[in-house]
């Protein structure tokens, strides 16, 4: 039975609640990095993995979970995913070690992966094509606003209640979404049985996992041995080979491939996915160095840093509403350009002694850019999708963003760690010139060692040998703070270049998106059963 329009809109609210949590948790951790570092006595690489493992676990199964919705019904897969997500959120909030938190975030990512494709699948089925524009605009606005408000909400929660509450917040939101979803979401069931591409899923998941592991942990292992004879280059090489094998296998599959290559026969769908990947890369990549910079260098607390990002969130929300009514590839290209311009402005203005409010114009420009992209890009990618491929297409479209996000997190984290290993020692040598010569090398070594541990975020600075005089010790701590501030600022500025380069590539991809009228050919909707 087809849902009434009113029930469809109520159901959309439940879908948006689920999607809001998924997108929120992709960025909310960034503002809590300093608190998690000190609270769990973790190092920078471990905390980067707290974010990256969620993105990775949310990405790898997306192609499969999209097909699970096609086989068992999107409602059932979404509800199971939501329950897993909420249970893992509780686990995250109760974690007492970095390892436990990383494991919980991996499970949370799996739950998110089960939910995400179903949200877009439901929209394409709850609303006919001629009435789908506004719901997709709402869905896209939720994506943009949730991505930006993650640091804002996270800062408030960390300051007032502790970092654990950035995860516990999901429980009341998810509970409401669960009840509304059970009542109002129709239980569509497919007419036929869909065969899973097990080999394709294995190739895609292991290949992507190996690639991201190698990129993110390269600096941690000094680009050498990981275990036994296996080194970082081997892991990355295996990942690339497996992904290449996945592409070849999909081209050979003729019966229910994991990624139906017919989807990419439409150039708009192909270019929209490339653009989506670039957007995910840039948004995830810019937040990591930015949030650590404003807290550890500029000295803002979690609430202050979240308030600094508030204008960005407001701008993104306002732009998303406007974009949902306008649409078009020029708007997408303009949004990507604005995000790149805002990022460049932030990098140009960032200095160890920059007044935080000076960064607001760049943040607002970036927020407008993010808000302009999501809705028209989603509308372009999903217009005219064949009914029997909706789940697969939704999985592919969301996978493209998540793959971009995973690679953005991994490569940005890598560049940041490499940058710190170079810029912090150099800054330490510059600031050590005012010390007596016999203290210089020891000072540089201790500051450099502190640059990859939780001590870099503590006001006390690196440990000073007990036989140093109190006056020298105090001077060393002051100089260490200056050295870290200068070194991290230089590393962050260099790291922000990468998201800008990727956004330029995204603009080129967006230029290939065609008007929606060109997508409406050869629609092949297959009837399905829907139980209330």
TrEMBL record:
It comes from the Bacteria. Pfam families: MFS_1. Residues 11-518 form the Major facilitator superfamily (MFS) profile domain. CDD domains: MFS_MMR_MDR_like. It is found in: Cell membrane. Keywords: Cell membrane, Membrane, Transmembrane, Transmembrane helix, Transport. The chain crosses the membrane at residues 12-36, 48-65, 77-96, 102-124, 136-157, 163-184, 196-215, 227-249, 270-293, 305-324, 331-350, 494-513. Its main location: membrane. It is a multi-pass membrane protein. PROSITE patterns: MFS, PROKAR_LIPOPROTEIN. This is DHA2 family efflux MFS transporter permease subunit. It comes from Actinokineospora xionganensis. The lineage of its organism: Bacteria, Bacillati, Actinomycetota, Actinomycetes, Pseudonocardiales.
């Amino acid at each position: 039975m087809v849902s009434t329009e009113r029930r469809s809109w109520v159901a959309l609210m439940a879908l948006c609640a689920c999607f809001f949590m998924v997108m929120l948790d992709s960025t909310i951790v960034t503002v809590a990095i300093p608190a998690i570092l000190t609270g769990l006595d973790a190092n920078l690489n471990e905390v980067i993995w707290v974010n990256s493992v969620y993105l990775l676990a949310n990405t790898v199964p997306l192609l499969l979970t999209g097909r699970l919705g096609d086989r068992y019904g999107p409602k059932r897969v979404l509800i199971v995913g939501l329950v897993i997500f909420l249970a893992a959120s509780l686990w995250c909030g109760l974690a007492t070690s970095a390892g436990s938190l990383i494991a919980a975030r991996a499970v949370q990512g799996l739950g998110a992966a089960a939910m995400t494709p179903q949200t877009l699948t439901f929209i394409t089925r709850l609303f006919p094509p001629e009435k789908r524009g506004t719901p997709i605009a709402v869905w896209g606005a939720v994506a943009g606003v949730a991505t930006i408000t993650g640091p804002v909400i996270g800062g408030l929660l960390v300051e007032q209640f502790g970092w654990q509450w950035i995860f516990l917040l999901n429980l009341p939101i998810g509970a409401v979404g669960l009840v509304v979803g059970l009542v109002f979401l129709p239980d569509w069931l497919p007419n036929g049985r869909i065969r899973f591409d097990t080999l394709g899923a294995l190739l895609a998941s292991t290949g992507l996992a190996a690639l991201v592991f190698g990129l993110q942990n390269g600096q941690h292992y000094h680009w050498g041995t990981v275990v036994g004879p296996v080194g970082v280059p081997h892991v990355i090489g295996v990942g690339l080979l497996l992904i290449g094998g996945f592409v070849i296998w999909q081209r050979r599959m003729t019966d229910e491939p994991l990624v139906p290559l017919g989807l990419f026969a439409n150039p708009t769908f192909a270019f929209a996915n490339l653009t989506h990947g670039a957007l995910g890369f840039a948004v995830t990549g810019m937040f990591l160095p930015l949030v650590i910079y404003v807290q550890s260098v500029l000295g803002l607390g979690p609430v202050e840093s979240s308030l600094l990002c508030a204008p960005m969130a407001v701008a993104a929300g306002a732009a998303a509403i406007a974009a949902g009514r306008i649409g078009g590839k020029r708007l997408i290209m303009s949004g990507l350009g604005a995000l790149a311009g805002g990022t460049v402005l932030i990098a140009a203005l960032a200095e160890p002694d920059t007044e935080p409010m000076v960064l607001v114009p760049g943040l607002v420009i970036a927020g407008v850019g993010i808000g302009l992209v999501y809705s028209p890009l989603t509308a372009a990618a999903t217009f005219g999708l064949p009914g029997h491929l909706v789940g697969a297409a939704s999985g592919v479209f969301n996978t493209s963003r998540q793959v971009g996000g995973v690679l953005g997190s991994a490569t940005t984290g890598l560049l940041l760690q490499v940058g710190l290993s170079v810029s912090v020692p150099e800054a330490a040598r510059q600031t050590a010139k005012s010390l007596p010569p016999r203290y210089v090398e020891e000072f540089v070594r201790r500051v450099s060692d502190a640059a990859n541990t939780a001590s870099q975020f503590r006001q006390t600075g690196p440990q000073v040998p007990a036989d140093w005089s109190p006056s020298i010790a105090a001077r060393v701590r002051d100089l260490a703070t200056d050295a870290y501030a200068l070194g991290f600022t230089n590393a962050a500025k260099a790291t922000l270049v990468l998201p800008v380069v990727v956004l330029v590539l995204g603009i080129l991809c967006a230029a290939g998106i065609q008007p929606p009228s060109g997508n409406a050919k050869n629609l092949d909707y297959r009837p399905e059963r829907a139980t209330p």
